[in-house]
Amino acid sequence: MGNIQKEMKLAKFGGSSALNPDTLVKHNPIGAQSIANAVSVLNSGRLSEFVGEWCDEFFGGTWVQKLEGKSAKLFQSQYAITVNSWTSGLVAAVGAIGIEPGDEIITTPYTMSATATSILHWNALPVFVDIDPRTYNIDVTKIEASITQRTRAILAVDIYGQPADMDEIKILARKYGLKVITDSAQSPGAKYKGKYAGTLSDIGGYSFNFHKHIHSGEGGICFTDDPDLALNLQLIRNHAEVVVATKGHNNYVNMLGHNFRMGELEASILTPQIGMLEIIVQRRNQLANLLNLHLSRNSGLELPIVAPDRTHAFYTYAMKIPRQEDSGVKRSEVAEALRCEGVPVAEGYQNIHLLPLYQKKIAYGSNGFPWSGTTNRREIDYSKGICPVAEEIHESRVLALGLCTYDFSDTQIEEIGFAFEKVWNYYYK
Ligand SMILES: *Cc1c(COP(=O)(O)O)cnc(C)c1O
């Protein structure tokens, strides 16, 4: 059994790696139907049918409207409104709720940067609340302490693919008269108490960026059940300022439109994928269950926790390693050893409050706007230490495996399991 002895030697120290990275296959949800649709759009020459004036095409072309109809039905939302990225979707959402400059929106720092910049784009101010160490989502027990006279909304994120604590968030929103926006970029197809992620708040939505479960390279979709918010989103998407007068729309707040329109190619590529999402999410859950099985014997490794009233889309499978104070082992060493074994692990995610944008408070121009200026009534604190849980998790605890980066096979998951066994055996035994 000298063979096994040899195999247990870490690849980092010259042993053979547990997984051959050359065998990894990029996740690719583009099937034959998406390709056929794209070819037919190209042949038609009609790559976008949006018109920036008041007519049927104001709401998008043939494929855009088809995709929106199919999405509204499948995800059980009154309105589904496509956009050219989910970053655009978030910007449109914050504008659509009628935010005023200097208003505050509560969100999480453990997310992708666009969650919070969507707030700054309307000269409103993000206020960061710490996360729950079990789910990595905003800690609902800490929101209330951050609500002020200026708070207008809560922007929750379903990080890694698990829906946030929507009921608790909505109770707080009702109590304080706040709107709720959900960033469900990473949780398409996940459910919270039987309802789809992204459809549980005033406005929510998904990203269709290349890195997500389903995609068109770039793209996104907003969901709402409110006809006024839907119209606001549609107006902001397509040069609102030009059409509001002819529409007879007399609410001009944030009707500074943009061009957030999705093209016909993207919509035609996405339409078949909407129907495949359930299977794609199911496979991510299978992979997560297999990982749970293979990784559960590594002492001190904390595996993902899924609340019983919701499902997880497992965009990312995130684990916490033992604290360095207890183990004497640095995360970077463990991560490097795993990468040498062929396991593509990431360390932490982001602490966006610590980005230079917030540390220096330089966004629009060089003089601190929108934090400074006549509309701002309160100093917002972005110091290191305001979100200790998110900071510790990002800096030293989480190892993450992207489950939408590659289409892992069962064998590769077993090999990942073996890689962890080898690494744990060396560092934590
Ligand atoms: C991907 C992502 C976004 C941005 O989506 P784009 O479509 O790339 O603009 C926003 N928030 C989160 C949490 C994301 O993962």
Question: Can you tell me about this structure?
Answer:
The chain is α/β, with parallel strands linked by helices and 429 residues long. Helix content is 37%, strand content 12%. Strands 1-9-8-5-4-2-3 form a seven-stranded mixed beta sheet, sandwiched between helices. Strand 6 and strand 7 form a beta hairpin. Helix 2 packs antiparallel against helix 9, helix 3 runs parallel beside helix 9 and helix 7 crosses helix 8. The longest helix is centred in the middle third of the chain and has 32 residues. The mean pLDDT is 96. The site of pyridoxal-5'-phosphate (PLP) has 14 residues, from helix 4 and helix 5.
Give the distinct bound molecules.
Answer: pyridoxal-5'-phosphate
The major β-sheet equals: 7 strands, mixed
Rg measurement, Å: 23 Å
Structural class: alpha/beta
Q: Count of helices?
A: 14
Strand tally is 12
**Main sheet strand line-up:** 1-9-8-5-4-2-3
Q: Could you estimate the helical fraction of the residues in percent?
A: 25-40%
Assign an overall shape. Answer: globular
Distance between the termini: 21 Å
Which runs of at least 5 residues are low in confidence (pLDDT < 50)?
none
The average pLDDT is: 96
Proportion of beta-strand residues: 5-15%
H/E series: HHHEHEHEEHEEEEEHHHEHHEHHEH
Draw up the topology in text.
Layout: H1 2-7, H2 32-44, H3 62-74, E1 79-83, H4 86-96, E2 104-107, H5 114-120, E3 125-128, E4 151-157, H6 166-176, E5 179-183, E6 191-192, E7 195-196, E8 203-207, E9 220-224, H7 227-237, H8 240-247, H9 264-295, E10 316-320, H10 324-327, H11 331-340, E11 345-347, H12 356-359, H13 388-397, E12 398-402, H14 410-427
Helix pairs in contact: 2-9, 3-9, 4-5, 4-7, 7-8, 9-14
Bound molecules: pyridoxal-5'-phosphate.
Pyridoxal-5'-phosphate is lined by residues 85-87, 111-112, 114-115, 157, 183, 185-186, 207, 209, 220.
